[in-house]
Each structure stands twice: as C-alpha cells, then as structure tokens.
Amino acid sequence: MTGSQDHLITADAKIKHETHGWRAKCLQDLIKFDFPIPKAFALSFSTVEKLTEGTSPQIEKVIDSFSEDALLVVRPSSQNPAWGGPSTILGIGMNDTKCRMFARKFGRQMAEALYLRFIQVFASAVDKLDIDFIEFIGHTDAIKKAMKTYATHSGRSFPQNPFDQLAGVLQSMALSWDTVSARILREAKGAPFDAQLGLVVQEMVLDKGTTECGSGFFRLINPETGLHQLTSQFVYGTSDNDFLKANGKTLSIAGDMQTSSMKDTVPQAYARLQVLAALAREKLCEEIQLEFKLCEGAVYILDGEKVSFTPQGAVRAAVRLAQDGIISSDDAVMRVEPALLNKLLHRQVASDSQRDIICYGIGASPGAATGRIVFTSAQAQASAARDEPCILVRRETTPDDVRGMHAADAVLTERGGLTSHAAVIGRGLGLPCIVGASSLDFRIPEEQLIAEDGRVFKVGDVITIDGSTGQVLVGEPDLVEASLDDSFQTLMEWADEARDIGVRANADTSEDARTARNFRAQGIGLCRTEHMFFETPRLTVMREMIFAETAKRRTEVIERLLPMQRNDFVQLFRIMEGCPVCIRLFDPPLHEFLPGSLSGQQELAHALDIPVQEVIKRVTEMAEYNPMLGLRGVRLGVTVPEIYEMQARAIFEATLEVSKDSTPVIPEIMIPLVSARREVELVKERVNAVSKAVQLEQGRIFDFRLGVMVETPRAALRAEEIADLVDFLSFGTNDLTQMTYGLSRDDAGRFMSDYVRKGVFAEDPFCMLDKDGVGELLRLGVERGRNARPDIILSICGEHGGNTESIAFCRDAGFDYVSCSPFRVPLACLSAAQLTISQKRREKH
Amino acid sequence: MTGSQDHLITADAKIKHETHGWRAKCLQDLIKFDFPIPKAFALSFSTVEKLTEGTSPQIEKVIDSFSEDALLVVRPSSQNPAWGGPSTILGIGMNDTKCRMFARKFGRQMAEALYLRFIQVFASAVDKLDIDFIEFIGHTDAIKKAMKTYATHSGRSFPQNPFDQLAGVLQSMALSWDTVSARILREAKGAPFDAQLGLVVQEMVLDKGTTECGSGFFRLINPETGLHQLTSQFVYGTSDNDFLKANGKTLSIAGDMQTSSMKDTVPQAYARLQVLAALAREKLCEEIQLEFKLCEGAVYILDGEKVSFTPQGAVRAAVRLAQDGIISSDDAVMRVEPALLNKLLHRQVASDSQRDIICYGIGASPGAATGRIVFTSAQAQASAARDEPCILVRRETTPDDVRGMHAADAVLTERGGLTSHAAVIGRGLGLPCIVGASSLDFRIPEEQLIAEDGRVFKVGDVITIDGSTGQVLVGEPDLVEASLDDSFQTLMEWADEARDIGVRANADTSEDARTARNFRAQGIGLCRTEHMFFETPRLTVMREMIFAETAKRRTEVIERLLPMQRNDFVQLFRIMEGCPVCIRLFDPPLHEFLPGSLSGQQELAHALDIPVQEVIKRVTEMAEYNPMLGLRGVRLGVTVPEIYEMQARAIFEATLEVSKDSTPVIPEIMIPLVSARREVELVKERVNAVSKAVQLEQGRIFDFRLGVMVETPRAALRAEEIADLVDFLSFGTNDLTQMTYGLSRDDAGRFMSDYVRKGVFAEDPFCMLDKDGVGELLRLGVERGRNARPDIILSICGEHGGNTESIAFCRDAGFDYVSCSPFRVPLACLSAAQLTISQKRREKH
Predict the structure, then answer these.
(1) Which residue of B354, B398, B749, B802 has the lowest C-beta tally within 10 Å?
(2) In sequence order, which residues have a C-beta less than 8 Å from that of residue A341 and are 6 or more positions away?
(3) Could you give the CA distance from residue B26 to residue B77 in angstroms, rounded to a whole number?
(4) B406, B421, B531, B591: which is the annotated catalytic residue?
(5) What share of chain B is helix, strand, coil (3-state, %, to 5)?
C-alpha cells in the first residue's frame, strides 16, 4: 500500500490532514484557490514511517516529479502544526555540477554559499556532524575544503546524486520525529502517543537577488494582541529565505523593514500579497501567515502557517473570525484552548523580561506578583495596611495563615503539592502561589530565606513569584496585566449559549463570590464555612467553645457566633443575587482551632484564665493521628450538634433578611463527610427543626435544599439510601480521591512526581480525575442516587471541577453542574461548551 | 387465632419451641417418655402477647384444666432458656377458703405460710408493692393483718377468685418481658429484637412435709468442669421448693446436703432420679437438670432445664454427649458458642474472687494478668529479666513499645479503641489488654497512675488487668488457669473435619507462629515484617539507612539487615513445617523509626555523629499529616526499592535453607497498600529478578507465590487488572474499612461509642465487618479478581478474620481462607465449621 498515498500536490489529489498533515493540506487548499505555489509533493504518514525502517520508497517518484535543475526543500507536515517536527531542510539536489551551473547563472559567490549551506545542513542532519562549513564562505577553494572536511569526518565523500541526498534528508527527518525528546515536546502540546509525521518536498524558487527580489512572511494580524494590523517581515534584495529563520545573525545584518517600506518599495507585490492573505483567511477560515518569495517582481507563496497567538490574541482572533462571518460562533468557541484562559486571567511576567531565578518550585496557582518578603501572617497584614505588596513565605500554610494569605500578593512555601493547603487557597483567591520550593532553605524562625547559591533574603527584600512557571525571581521584572476585553466577554457568552452543563464556583468569602459573579459563575457550588471561624474574634469564641465544661455553656458560647455567621451569609446571598448558594456545614476537626505553639498556648491560657497545663492537656488530648480521617464533618455535627444548629439558624435568618428586599433566596445546605444514612437522618431532623422554629418566630416561610457531600467511598456506594433523604448530592472528588487511593494529598507531594515519572500513576489523580477508580465510584453514586430519586441534583465540587477531562466525565455521567475555584470558571465554561459542540457535531455525522 | 395454640401439655399436643418456648417443649418431651410430671398447660407466644394488651384470653380454659383444689405455678418459657424471663410465681389459687382447707390437711402454720408467701409474690409482681408480708408468718391473725396491709397499699382487697389471680399473674409476667431492662439483658445473650415469651402453668404438688418429703434439683454433671459428677441439691423435710431459688436465707437455714446423703436417706427416690436423669439426657440429647419434688416417697419432676455450663464445661459436655453416641460430632460442634472459646484460651479472674475495681476501660484483649506497674518498655524488659510479672502502663502504645509489650504480662492504656495499636498487638500476643481507661489519670512523666478516688499507684505497685471485662483491679485476685484439655482438642478436630474454608493466623514472630501451630492454624496468612525492625540493633540500622546520603550507602546499610531478616524467616518456616507462610513486605512509614523525644534525637545524633539539629530537621521533614495515607507500603517499595529487594532475598535464601532439610517451603510474598496495577508490575519485576539471581547463585530452584494486599478501595475496584499479575489477593479489611468510611481507627475511639449508641453505625465497623459498604468492595474485588484469574487464591487478613459474621461473609463470597490473630484461630475454626454444618442442614431440608 505504501506510496499509493504519495502525490504531487494538485487541486484534486487525495490529500487529508489525517494522512498527510496540516501543511500538505494547507498547500493543496491554497493551490485550489490558484495561489502561486511552487510545485510540491506530499509524502504520507505511512510512507514516512517506512522511512524510519531504512527503506526508501517513492524517492524515485519524487525526484521524477521535479525538473532536473531544481533544488528541493523538505518541510515537516504533522497533523497539528503545534506539535512541531524536524527543521525544514533546503537546497537538496545541490552538487558540483549544479554549483557550476548556478555560478554561471547567479555568480560564484552565491552558488558556493548555497552549496556550503546545504553541506552544512546535510552534514548536521544526516551525518550528525558538528562542523561549521559556513565559515568557508568567501574562501579560496571553499567547496574543495568543505568536501575534504566532510569526507574526513563522515568517512565518505559528499553525495552528488540528488536521489541519495533526498533519501538521506527524508530518513533523517523521519528519524528525528521518533526521538524521545521530540515525543515529549509534542506530547506536552497535546499530541497523542502515536502522532505521525508527513513530509512536503517542494521546488525552491531561486534568483540572483538583484531586482525586486526578496522573501518574508506576511500576516494581517498582530499575534500578540489579536488586533488586525500588518505584522510582516520582509528581507529585501536577497535570494535566500533560509536566513530568516535559520540564521539570526544574517537576519540582523539584512535588517528588518516595516511593511510600509515594502509597500513603497514593491507596491504591486505588496498589493498582491494583501489580496492573497485576505483570500487565505477567508478560504482557510484561519488567520494564516504566508511565507512568500519575491522573484524578479513575481510573488510565490512557499508555505502557509497558522498564526501562533498569545492567549489574548487567540481569543480576539477567533471572535473576530466569527464576527466577520468566516466561522460560526461555535467554531470560535472550539478554536480557543481552555488552558490559555488561565494565563489570560492573571498578570504574567513579560516574556522579554530578564529573569534572575533563585528556585524552580511547583507553580500551584497561576499569575505573577512582586512584593516584599514577609514570614508571618501578622507581617503580611501590616504590609497590606501600609499598602505595600508582600509575598508570604512559609514552610507550609495552615488555616491559621488564611488571614495572611488574604493580605499577601503571593505565597511561597517549602512543602506541599498541587493540592496542598496553600495551593488550594491560592487558586481560590486567584493568588499566585509556588509550593514545594524545597531547594530554598526556609529559616522561618530566623526570618531568612537562603538560595542554593548562598544569597540570603530577609524580611522586606523584594522577590517575584511566577505562579505559572514555578519560578521564584529576585527583584521586580516587568509584568503584563491581565486583560478581559470585549472579545473575552463575547467568547464566554457564546460558550454559555453552547454548553449544556452548569458551572458554579467554590467561594468562601465575599471576595470569592464577587470574583465568581464577574466570571459569570451560575452560583456557588461549595461555600466552606470553616474559614469564617479562623479570624478573631471568632477564633477566640471557637476556642472558648472547645474549653466549655458543659453542653449548656457550649451552646451559650456558640450562640455568640450566630450574628457574625448570619452576616456572612447575608453578604454572600446579596452578592449572588438569587443564584444558588450551596453552604457546606462546618467540616474541620476542632483541634485545628487550638494553638500549636507554646506561646499561643500561653496566650490562650491567659485569655481563658486557666493554667497553661490545662490548655496543653486539651491540645494533646485532641490531637489526631490522621486528622483527615478523624472527628470532623458530620461526625462533629452528630456529636456536637450545637454548631450545625447555629449554622442552620444563621443560614435561615440570612435567607429571610435578604429575601425581604430582593429575589427570594433558596439556600442549599450540604452535610460533609457522610458515610452512613443515619448521619444524614440525624442532621436532617435538627435542620428541619431549626427551619420550623425560624419560620414560626418570624412568621414568614422560605424554602431550602438539603444535600450531602459525597466524599467517602462508602457514601458513593450507599448513595441510594442516602439520596432518598436529600435534594442533592455533590461529589467532593478531593477527599474521595484521597480515600479511594488511601493517599493524603498533603503527604503525596513527597513521591507523586516520582510516581508520575515512573508511570505508576498516569497522572497525579489530584490534578486529573482518576476515571477508573474514583470515576467508578462516581458512576455508581450517580446511578444509585438517581435510582432513589430521579430528580436529584448532582454535581462535583472538588478541585477537579474546573478540569476539561472531569467536565467531560461529568457530562457523560449526567451531572447537573460542576463547581470549581472562581478563577477556573471561564475555563470550565469554555471546556463545557467545547464538549457540547463536539458531541453535537459527532452526532450529526 | 389466639388460643388455638394453647394446650394442656400432653404427648400429642402441638407444642413447638418456636411457638411455646423451650420449657413447654421440654416438659412435653419428658411427658412423652413417661416422666412423672404434674399436669401442665402451655400458653403460646401469641397468647402472651395478647396479655400485654390487657385482654385475658384462655384464662377460663386454663383454670378449667386443673382441679378446683389445685394451687398453680407459672413459669416463663422463652425460645432459648438463656434469654431469661420473669421469675416463676407459685401458689396461685390460694385464698381464704383454700387456706382453711390446707390448714385442715397440713396444719395451720403451713397453710398460712403458703398463703402469705403467695400474697407476698402477688403484691410484688402484680401490684408492684414493696412490702414484707413474710414477717407475718407465725403471728396471731397473720392472714387478717396481711389482708389489711394489702388493702391499704393496693387500694383493693386481695383477690379471692383464682381467675383474677391467674389473670393478674400472667399479665404481670407478660409485661415484665417487655421492659427495657429485660430486653437489654436478653439481647446481650443474643436474643433477637422480637424474641417472644410463652408461659407454662402447672399444678403444684403439695404435702405436709413430714415423711420422705423434700425438693431439689438433680444433675449428673458438674457445670464448672463438664465432668460427670452428681452435683445436685436437695432440701429434705420441707414441702416447699420455693425457697430453693427465691429466698437465699431460707436455703442456707435448710442447709445443703451432699447427694451421698440423699442416697442414704431416700435410696429409692435417689435411684429413681438417677434413672430419670440418664433417660432425660439420652432422650433430650442434652445435659438436663431436673427439678423434682419428693412427696411422701413419690418422685415428681416439676421441670427440666439445660445445665448452664462454664466454657470449659460446655466443651467437655458436648464432646462427651457425642462420644456417648447421643449426638453426632457435628451436633457437638454446633453446641459450643464460639465466643466461649475466648475465655477458654486465657486465664480469668476467678468468679468468686473479691474485686477492688479502680477503672472500667475497654477490654481489648481477653484474659487476666497480675503484675507490677511499669511505665516504660525499658522497665518492662528489666522486670521480665528479673522474672517479675509486670503490667505496661502507657497513654497509648506505638511501635516503639512492642518490645515492652513482649516483656509485659498485660497492657493498660489511656487512649485508643478496640483496634488501636495496643489492642491489635495485645490480641496478637494473647496479652490481656485494656485500652481507653480514660477515667484514670495517666501521669507517665511522673510515673504515677491516679484513680478517680484519689489513690495513687506507682512503679512496682501490683494491679490486675481483666482484659475480658475491661476492669482494672487493685492487687492480686485469684486467677483461673486456661485449660485446653482433650475435649477441646477433640472438638477442634471435629470442627476441622466439618469446615470448608481455611483458617490461618496473623503471626509476626516465632512466638506467634508457635501459638498459631498449637491452635491448629493451617498457615500464616499475614506476617507483618516491620515489627522485626523495631528491635536493636536493627532499629539502629534502619535509622542509619534513613540518614544515608546516597543510594549506594543506603543499599550498603540495608544489606546489613539481610542476615537478620533471613534468620527471621528461617525460624518461621521451620516452625510452620511446610504450611504456607504469607509475608507482607515492609509497610510502615519510615518516620516511625525515628525517635520522637529530644533525648532520643540526641542519642541518635551521637550514634550517627551528626548535629542534633540535623536529626531534628530530618524528623520534621519526614513527619506526615496523615501517616495512614502517606508514604508507606508499596509506595516505599517503589521509591526506595532496596528494602523490598533485601526482603525478597532474605525470603528466598531462607526458603532454600529450610527446604534443604525438610518439606520444601513455598513462601508467599504480599505487596501492601497497592492502588494501581503498575505498582505491582514494578515490584514483581524486581522480586522476579531477585528470585532468578538467588536460584542462579545457589544452583537450586524454588517456587514462590506473589500476591497483593487489597486494602485501598481502588485496589478492590481494579482487582481485575491487578489479579492478572499475581497468585493471590488478601483483603486487609482494617485499612479497607478505614478508607471506605474515611475513618481512622486510631481516632475513631473518641466518638465510636457515641455513634453506636445513637445507632449511627449499627456496629463499630472495625469489630463487625460492614457488609453493605466494605462488603460490596470485597464482593467486587472477588468477582473481578476471579474474572481475571479463576484460580486466584482469595482471603481476608484483617482483624475481622476471626469474627463469625465475617467468616460467614467470606464463605458466601468464595474466599479460600480467613486469617486472624493466633488466639482467635480456634474460634474461627469453630465458627467456620458451624456455618458449614448449618448450610448442609439447610440444604437437606
């Protein structure tokens, strides 16, 4: 079969993306629309694969397709140009005979330069020689010297036969596609494991380079901004377009000319290129960059490429194509890679900025921020009070540090992974965050940070956190602002129209909630109430409660939290303007509220007026071996029911207060860490009782929904008997993943990278939902939940909620919505829309 | 329908255990074999239930069944006599008329005594009066005075009509069956929630009590020992058997007589009773205690009861019944309650010993031991060296304390529950253990234990731990030795013949292994190798390994462990004599091997000759938030492969060494904490490589089996792809339960009792396998494992392995064997046999 797919590229040759690659297909499309394209030949994926096995099919056929005098160029043509490929190789066919011929035609210097550059490229690509042949240019007997050098190092004389040259070049390009580094690079860009390569062989356009000659590329758009603006490059007066890309030095000697200059110098060529570029955009439905050659006044199009945009550019270009009627709005939605939005929503270190990097950590929350180093939450707050940006540096963060994180502009920790406390809170706050920066020496007590090179950083020293790359930088590099322009808004509107699964945000604070609304979240899918209790004076009250001697005293203390908690919910409800707000009842173990340090314990002893020994005794008693699996969540709700009762009352009173002057609020109350039906029954009874009491007291009615956070494997397995009692189930995939794997996300950082590198886990299951294990529990949970209650509302609210793969999974499994951190909401909306559109299109076919 | 089941008890009346209770059925059986039984009437369960509703069906019919002059006695008849019931009530029918009649017949004093005692019982049971009518006996106008007192307190005159009397008595007995305390008592003995009561009404045998009169009970067997030995009681010369049970004072006045005396005094009656007792044993296929009445030379059998045995007695009696051909060996196996064996295998506090109890904790490992208090492992070892029994007292135990536990005679801890470290190790060692003794004040640093009453106990003070009841006793009460006599061995042989599921033991040490063999375990199902590393000098080597700077150095250090580890396995294999030994590879997190105290850290710094700060830094770095879910098990095997390689080599070299001089050993190697197939692949590759290397080095071949410990939910869900790689799957239900519930067993103690009391969990899932949640994962694991490999060996090796319900579950699910701590092996064998026999019998019907 090999070879039957290899064709000269003509308007009616059988050439497809899937068999010949994007470049071959693009050239064919341009040929169809009568673009002046030099003769080109497409080698299919299967032919190129054969080449790696050492056979050389079709080479005769290729050679025969071109004139005997031609020089050839070979370009890679993979299915997606973003996946990269071997470098283009020019000048194939050059030999002693042709050199003499070209010397007659264009002059000896140019002929020899052409020859030497081919020898250079061939020796490097085919013979893997690291020798500089270019330096011979201009020497006496340049070719002779080069030939001798080549023979000495390669052990053979330079091949004169175009067949041997082409065979060598094609095979070397085929082989380079199969190297490990090439595979890793393209897989990083989303290529599948078995991605293949096609090759395009094209005749070179050659001239003397004297009259209206030159080469360059031409595009109608600015790839940085996505605005329509000619951003082309043109090298005038040279015959050789090789230098444009391959040799930076030569390019700078030739000098750049503004397109306006080209317009002045070669006005007809310029006008012709404008027409062609506009035609290419319209016909190929893409922003296309044309590589062209101007040869004695005639314009040749050598190649077309997709313009490679910045995130902002990509969004604007896609929206503009749709607004111009070239593509549909669905197409525009499909064009933008969701992950790009991550960069769009945050400030970045400018790409041309100098970087003085002192550490590579794990970029756990994207965006960049510059500020002065602080080592404690108190310092961060003081800094914020002075309006001075600061970076909070901790070995790891705990709930105690949340206040500091709110005050800081970025966070840097020594320990933890992508789902550590710092990372999760950081993403929630849209705060740039680097974790696992273990190559730095964190001396928190001494308030010093020591780099591997010995440099010492102290409080007040300025550093920059690049949370997108994980780099910790010294000083203040240039930052580029986030820009959510009209195109972005338009794209998100189109995405909202297209998608068929809801997107909510995980939001704990008013600030989170406002971000969520700005990003068009349809509600709050997870409001973790515990963060509300870590601020003084609430923290003090919580501690007093823990030390309460009797249940009565405990109730009294908790009641002091009621007005504060009610106010929290009033604010959230107001911001969310009638959108659903799902409030998770108190979840963490109580010991998180006790001070860990002796000084903290002494302070508490003073505050409570009891001996410090008593405080220490309580702290010791309440310590847990595995807090993750301890007395928390609904277990607290069952054993210390006063907390949930206070929270339910706060929610209901806030509901009535806000419903008074706007859309009625229907709050959703979620019970965490359930593992048995009876837990839900007990909490439900109490919540219902509080609801009745509040309605009676205020003489007004309200509705609410009760639900369960499914985060233990047992809750998923027993979803049928649990669903029966509630209105919704929300799957907490963080904890569910931890328990299904028996793996604490806080401790996994230590070996996860090793594990992923060795392929033990295909992916970190805290980043990418484990469809096989955790996924099966989700499917069982959904099926069983729906069995008991067909109209039950289903969602996921773990960190996976914003991830494309998880959203695909949730759509397939029939979830009603996903919930993710506010800054991931646009990404989730876009992913969801793409999934819906893809499915619709598949179903059409 | 009510009433149609109520009959006079005759040989052909329709009377069944399930409708009339054990006593009614027993009386009918005796009547069938012509025992001299006074006329009796059986009221069915449903009739008694009606009585509680206030209706009095059937009472006329009962009254009419007896002669007008008769006095009646009512006895409870529940389905199982062990479930208890209301006290027997005698003398019904007594009134003024009959009193006069009996005065004529037996003399006034006896008649009045009879009457007064009836009034006493009636007033107490029916009218709930707390008045002493007995004191009137012998007074002038005794009856008159009693009648007046009764009327004053009850508000009515004493009922004279036998109908009213009987109706009152029956209803009061029916009601007392329904009280909460009665229900709790019988449920503790295994009665179902809806257990019902029948009643037997019988005519009393009355005489003057002058010639050859008396009453008593007669049994052929000693209930303490189970040996055949007449142990009967006989009160001679009184007409009234009421006093035997109801009134201890009177009994002691009458005095006990040895049966030999009875033989001398009333030889015919004695001989008649011997015949009847032997007949009852043979016909009822039980050891029966006959209640009899001797009335002017004639013997009446009033009642038959099952003899209530001690555990030892129960075993011996059942075996003897089978050996005498009265029941089958299967019957004998079915007769012994497996839980009884728990007591049989350990020393106990003698039942009549004085108990000075200072605390009620959780009895976590059965048996009793007396010893001097020690507060550290070092003290325990010193004590053991002096051959002085000691009790190790700790707030909680850690792997560091295992040495101390080996040296101690019992363990007492402040914290923890039934599956805490102390409890699990205690049961494994057969060491009496009380955990959660939180009412004592544990002052470990001061080396004091303070009781709630203020008594202070110091090092060297003698206490006794009753691990069966959870009582901590002061001083040295009498202890009863464990006794594993021939009967026990015979019973276990019969159980082994009957059962169809294997039983192995969890055994980590030679001592464990010997216990396992003594108890007829069929192999070791779980050998945890980590305990082997907590003893010096190995602990030191482990620590050196943790501080090794390079992989090479680490390998060198680990290699020093090889000979020691090999010797461990040589010993185990020798003891187990060719029985399978399943060795779990190293499981715990490495930080468990580092010292927690500053002094320990300083010591280690000295030993390694590094600054103590470095030690502290390492300890801090390696600390984990949730060690349960951290870097342990196969995760260590993958990231620090040298440990598993050393262990595999030790196992294989030991295999060859032991196989040289006895049955070839086929070791089983088990990989812990697996959650992904690739983990198994990686370990399998390395283990296979070590196996090949050892075979090559020694020029001899051996076989081994590789398996996976399924203890994460994911491993159960993915059992199909995992099973494909291995020979066996062993389900670790401890960890699987922890992860399925998201519940750490070490932390659950704090609220588990609350949870079980509130019915949130029907049972502590660490004690009783959760069939719904964890059970579903087991079923999925089994099904999927078998799909991939039909011949795969399946087992469970968690603490549940020894539990009847779990064994039933495992049999149904098709497991090959269960594994449990050595001291539970007999219990497991017996349970398994009973399940098999029950099923065979069900299938027959």
Answers:
(1) B354
(2) A311, A826, A827, A830
(3) 10
(4) B421
(5) 50, 15, 35
